[in-house]
Amino acid sequence: MSETTKFLLSEDQMPKDWYNIAADLPVPPPAPLHPATQQPIGPADLAPLFPMALIEQEVSTERRIEIPEPVREVLRLWRPSPLIRARRLEKALGTPAKIYFKYEGVSPAGSHKPNSAVPQAWYNGQAGVKKLATETGAGQWGSSLAFAGSLFGLDITIYQVRVSYDQKPYRRALMETYGARCVASPSNETQSGRAVLAQNPNHLGSLGIAISEAVEVAALNEDTKYALGSVLNHVLLHQTIIGEEAMLQLEMAGDDPDVVIGCTGGGSNFAGIAFPFIGMQLRGGASVKQRRIIAVEPAACPSLTRGKYAYDFGDTAHLTPLVKMHTLGSTFTPAGFHAGGLRYHGMAPLVSHVKELGLIEARAYHQTACFEAGVMFARAEGIVPAPEANHAVRCAIDEALRCKAEDRAKTILFNLSGHGHFDMAAYQNYLSGGLVDQDYDEGELAMALSGLPNVG
Amino acid sequence: MSETTKFLLSEDQMPKDWYNIAADLPVPPPAPLHPATQQPIGPADLAPLFPMALIEQEVSTERRIEIPEPVREVLRLWRPSPLIRARRLEKALGTPAKIYFKYEGVSPAGSHKPNSAVPQAWYNGQAGVKKLATETGAGQWGSSLAFAGSLFGLDITIYQVRVSYDQKPYRRALMETYGARCVASPSNETQSGRAVLAQNPNHLGSLGIAISEAVEVAALNEDTKYALGSVLNHVLLHQTIIGEEAMLQLEMAGDDPDVVIGCTGGGSNFAGIAFPFIGMQLRGGASVKQRRIIAVEPAACPSLTRGKYAYDFGDTAHLTPLVKMHTLGSTFTPAGFHAGGLRYHGMAPLVSHVKELGLIEARAYHQTACFEAGVMFARAEGIVPAPEANHAVRCAIDEALRCKAEDRAKTILFNLSGHGHFDMAAYQNYLSGGLVDQDYDEGELAMALSGLPNVG
């Protein structure tokens, strides 16, 4: 008798709608504000950037939002993604805990990002939009939007953080293979970019700057809209398909997690796995199992654990609305650690909100500990996780070891948000002993926080 | 009503045995010969290199050979692999043909190679072997054996062709992440390597040289055996799980292929998809559907289409037995095109044999045409194929376009042997217009063929 390793759903079992946590929150999240008026923004303020269907999702309080069939048709290229029981890792750890992971690395771009790139591209296409501008750090989001754009015939321009553009040419090649145009940011193509270059022609760039460039292009060009890979409500909404599938798969496995874990940068993959479980708790109250939900972030960019919960800008040039979130300040520049997807000064407002409500825990790890966990995972389960996902792996292993120490057979679920095949230089760095644990600079953090906008 | 995209098997439906084409061949393939005596070799001659269980598989004529449960347990980490209907590609081509592909890129190493690496590592472990030596070109086989070694606690040493070792550090990082040791070949660790370096200290290496180094280490060290990633009968046997699964999945789809396509270097992924179908034809005779089975190779290394069917060595230093195969001569050095996994002077004896029996067709393509097909495939289906797999994609597209021209709705099946995430430099080269179609040199080929051993 063989024990099942992978819990697979048929295409028919793929969720037909997304789960919107806004429907179940006991307190609504603070509204985004217009930076000039400091008044709540309305749909019209967002219309230059997004098509109306996505704006409606951004503000919706409907619990379930239908996934359009043309979007489902594309998602079926790789979804439902597998839920895998990490039996070999359990044995290697000698833990009584059961460890499950949801594996999002099976997508064409190798991460969870296409879950939102595909609907964003489709809704824009439906609205007659021909061009999308976006930013990317390590390139996971950029390659996902490039992929989605190729399917729906959209022109995609991607402002890629200069340091990644130079250091990770293979991610760029992936974007170009899908037909997208990649521009090193800061660039000469925008006023935001030129302003930065005027001060420092060799600026390495940042996500905040790249966002400014993409937003500016969308705001100034009638035929161009903007797409963001995390942070916004509608992006988190699209990612809930991860947790919705995981629930069905855990049911197949006859199991129910005690702990749910995801890594957090902007917050989308974490929300994807966590929000459906949080929603179940919110709706069921004391009658349902109370789970621990853990968001894991890099110690060098610790917005949830060290940031201030305050109104801040999402970008450097201050072109975005003000949103209330855990932030390190929009001028904070994280150290150049390897998990590029987690190098963002802020946090998704919805993730920050559930943190404030006490619905989730947050934890920060240094990168050496994360790579150690990633290598242990690879040698047990075969899959080499992306540096971002290693944060979740580290936490899952620590929880499993705690179960061992306490002799408690808990069930742990984590999201393995992507594979590390594009990140082998980082592993090389770790294996050669060259990896350094970076911390944020207390003085720089204090300075960045002191520059927060003065809002109510 | 949505149309199914992926045809998935449950873990229980994964084949429990491998298919051995030797049981169904009308004529047995010519025996391997001992280079000194030119007499057929026996199991004892192979014993220094392989454990007895694999030697038995090498010479077996049993039709079905059971897959040991511990091997199945590991294969279940990613198998059964999906069979996918390329509906978007069909639409993009405007063809009446149906195109299915078996996707082997879902394995931890990203290709079909672990299908044989896992059983090879397991059988060696069962025989008490502690160390394995092997060679790798681009790194697909090396990373697969490194992965398998990590699961069964074997020390793995990989002689990686120098030019790949230098140009593809990320594949090396993957091997090291799994705990293997990687050595640039030619190396100073072996007599074969030192002999080459003495003539040319900057030699770029070749698969033939790397095989010599690994075989030498295994032959001289009691505790070390040798593992090969293609060519040998037992390797092809292990890959038949691809075709066996595909047959079950096509049955689910209610379809039956008219054309079956695989790319060929050493021949293992091609045999994996093709042999089960050839076996069905051999057993059923005229009563079963006669399919076209097409092996696709690089025009710059065209063993099946331009080589001589003759006895030759598998390596440069002539340490291997003589096998009858389509060969370009063991001193032939293929041009440095991107499909490194197809840069081998010979061909699997069993693939050569079925070619001689008229059971398969062979076709050669230049690399630019293959990358053009790969980019078209990526933009339609999302998956970026490995440069090797692009040869199969090109052929499938050409067959589909022929169906369009002739208005015939044929069913095409091809094996997508691996993803291209480690090969984005090659795509970059193609996209930038820098890719050159290389041909073999007629003079060099004639010279290499003139050096073939003089065997009855």
Automatic annotation (TrEMBL), chains A, B:
Where does the record place the modification N6-(pyridoxal phosphate)lysine? K113
- Could you say which cofactors this protein requires? pyridoxal 5'-phosphate
Q: Name one Pfam family in it.
A: PALP
What does it catalyze? (1S,2R)-1-C-(indol-3-yl)glycerol 3-phosphate + L-serine = D-glyceraldehyde 3-phosphate + L-tryptophan + H2O
User: Can you state the subunit structure given in the record?
Assistant: Tetramer of two alpha and two beta chains.
Functionally, this protein is described as follows: The beta subunit is responsible for the synthesis of L-tryptophan from indole and L-serine.
NCBIfam families linked to this entry = PRK12391.1, trpB_rel
Q: What is this protein called?
A: Tryptophan synthase beta chain
Q: Which organism is it from?
A: Niveibacterium umoris
